[in-house]
Description:
Layout: E1 5-16, E2 19-30, E3 34-38, H1 45-52, E4 60-65, E5 68-70, H2 75-80, E6 83-86, H3 98-102, E7 109-110, E8 113-114, H4 116-129, H5 145-158, E9 163-167, H6 175-190, E10 194-198, H7 203-208, E11 211-216, E12 219-225, H8 231-239, E13 257-265, E14 273-278, E15 282-287, H9 293-300, E16 308-313, E17 316-318, H10 323-328, E18 331-334, H11 338-341, H12 349-354, E19 362-363, E20 366-367, H13 369-382, H14 399-411, E21 417-421, H15 429-444, E22 448-452, H16 456-462, E23 465-470, E24 473-479, H17 485-492
Amino acid sequence: MSATVLLRMNNVHKKFPGVYALRDVQLELLEGEVHAILGENGAGKSTLIKVLGGIYTADQGEIEIGGNPVEIHSVHDAQRHGIAIIHQELVLVPHMTVAENIYLGREPMRFGFVDHERMIRDAQTLLDTYEMHIDADSLVGKLTIAQQQMVEIVKAISYRSRILVMDEPTSSISDKEVGFLFNTIRNLAQTGVGIIYISHKMRELDEICDRVTVLRDGMYIGTEVVKNTTKDRLISMMVGRELTQYYIRDDVATQEEVLRCEHLCDGKMVKDVSFTVRRGEILGFAGLVGAGRSEAMKCLFGLAPHYTGDIYLEKRKIRVDNPVKATQYGIALVPENRKEEGLYKVQSVSYNATIEVLRAFIRGLIYRPAKEESIAQHYVDIMHTKTPSLEQTIGNLSGGNQQKVMIGRWLATMPKILILDEPTRGVDVGAKSEIYAIINDLTKQGVSIIMISSELPEVINMSDRIYVMAEGRTKGCLTREEVSQERIMQLAAE
Length: 494
């Protein structure tokens, strides 16, 4: 590791109405280093990165680039100082080509017109240099999430950035694609680029990171060399306490069948899916990206109204044509992509927490705001959601707290069957433990949980049974006694 300091942030403060987001935070990044930032949701990670990227301006503190003090008041300032941020929600233009996205706003010109041939040639050279097997003239909207991420990396490289920030880069890609991403990161680090790496996946630290800085409640807790620390030490720094039990699961499932699905098919990604769910059970769904797990659950929730196959709820055949009917049957879905499919981002926490139970406080022309507040507060408390108030705009909360509001919203409908699609994606270890405890408590109340997860330790440790899917079909069902990561991957690869 080079001793040359690329970036130093000292005594950084940032306050929003009603809350201190950052208090006396520091960060140091060395040339060629991969430096992780860890912290629970709401710890200040995103705010610190937005200060570095010019989206926010710090109220107090200093930033040095290459030993020189700099002022960063805009995204342009950050780019000028060699800083590039690849956000968790990618910001590419889907109807434009890869080359057009890479050079957007700075297209090469010839005789007053955009030189498309040169632009495609230059983009392809960059893609080939880093062994990204993508055509520069492909439409971005046709690429996978992992490929779009690679385009973002190349776009950052094209700015000759020396400081690259990656926010949850592995949250939506397969294990195979993670390996490819890590190779790309290592190649970048070897050229002297410093990489700030934000992730909730502790297992990634040993593989890709050199040092780790921990934040908690907007404050700097400490920096550790990865090879000289432990997972338990880092978790203790993050949450301020020891997590004596991480996966929380009691054996309360019954043999009573509450749901049966036979030969579900949506005519697209879901080809032949059959499974049963028992009362009080956590039923896991595992499989590789593109296996059709989320799409199968959308059939069950009425988001694929023209599906074929049969659904039986408590031994009675039902037809689920739309989400309203699904909710009436006691089926609820917390979607994988909360920002696009679940949240009303410009509305309040209260609005988002109660939108599915309007009849509880609105009857005809009579609106009972105290009842709405009571419901919202109840589920904010149950989920341990961190928010300054119920009127806070939900888009201003951290990702994990947004997820807690989403889960609470559907708990308010009192479901018989709760479908959780990647329930802890982008959620820190402390919040994960809380979510696992809530899931466990729900099963004690007789609620059946269907959990889709790409994290094998999560699905193995929390599930009573696990269905494995591949290419739109259920390939097998494993009990707790039968399950292992190897067995899951064998079925997923059949």
